[in-house]
Amino acid sequence: MSLATAFFNSGTWLVIRNLLFFFAAVIWVASLYWIYKDARRRIEDPWLVGMAVLVGVVVPYFGPFIYMLFRPPEYLDDVRERELEIKAMEDRLAKRDLHCPVCRSEVDASYLVCPICTTKLRQACTNCKAPLEALWQVCPFCETPVEPTAVSGLPTLEPRRRRRAE
Ligand SMILES: [Zn+2]
Ligand SMILES: [Zn+2]
Predict the structure, then answer these.
(1) What count of Cα atoms within 13 Å lies in the side-chain half-sphere of residue 129?
(2) Given pLDDT bands bounded at 50, 70 and 90, which one contains residue 151?
(3) Helix, strand, coil shares of the chain as percentages rounded to 5?
(4) Residue 160 above 70 pLDDT?
(5) CB neighbours of 137 closer than 8 A, spacing ≥ 6?
(6) What is the Å distance from ligand 2's center to 129 Cα?
(7) Distance 92 CA to ligand 1 centre (A)
(8) What is the pLDDT of residue 105?
(9) How many Cβ atoms sit within 10 Å of the Cβ of residue 39?
(10) pLDDT at 164 exceeding the cut of 60
């Protein structure tokens, strides 16, 4: 019996082999858990998250690298945050588009009078004092009818037209 044969037949080799199997299994399970955690942060569809984990199950150890090639580049939180920022920016732009028809200064949709040139922009409801749109026939806040004579002659407040990209 050679030394090598004696070693592989010994109890020491069995212990080492079992430990190696154990660590291999632990690393494999850890890689699946990593894929699951990462996919949950990037992919909304639970079926696709399951598919990503399945890649790690079918292709042990190399699964995470295959997954990394195909995963979405951004976290869902970042995507949502960016969408919210864009929406807030659009809201700000839409508000900023309101201008006084006389002096072109920025005015708010709720202003009754232009604070710069004192041009009357809107009529206030006779009952609840809410600012009314020029076309409104009735106050939407308290249902008081708008007197039509008072509306005529007021300049209409129009959003400034955006130049089209050419
Ligand atoms: Zn003005
Ligand atoms: Zn009213």
Answers:
(1) 0
(2) very low
(3) 50, 5, 40
(4) no
(5) 145, 146, 148
(6) 6
(7) 20
(8) 87
(9) 22
(10) no
Q: How confident is the model at residue 41 (pLDDT cuts 50, 70, 90)?
A: very high
| Residue at token pair 């809107």 | 122
Q: Measured in angstroms, how far is the CA atom of residue 127 from the centroid of ligand 1? A: 26
Whole-number average pLDDT of the chain = 85
- Look at residue 160 and give its three-state secondary structure: coil
Q: Which long-range contacts (CB under 8 A, 24 or more apart) does 77-85 make?
A: 77/41
Q: Give the separation between CA 79 and CA 88, rounded to whole angstroms.
A: 14
Listed residues: CB within 5 A of ion ligand 1 = 100, 102-103, 114, 116-117, 119
- For residue 157, the ligand closest to its alpha carbon is 1
CA distance 4 to 42: 50
How far is Cα 56 from Cα 67, in angstroms, rounded to an integer?
8
State in Å: Cα 124 to ligand 2 middle: 8
Backbone angles phi, psi at 97, to 5 degrees: -75, -10
Instruction: Encode pLDDT of 66-122 as tens digits.
Output: 999 999 999 999 999 999 999 998 887 776 678 888 998 888 888 889 999 999 888
CA dist 64 and 61 (Å) reads 7
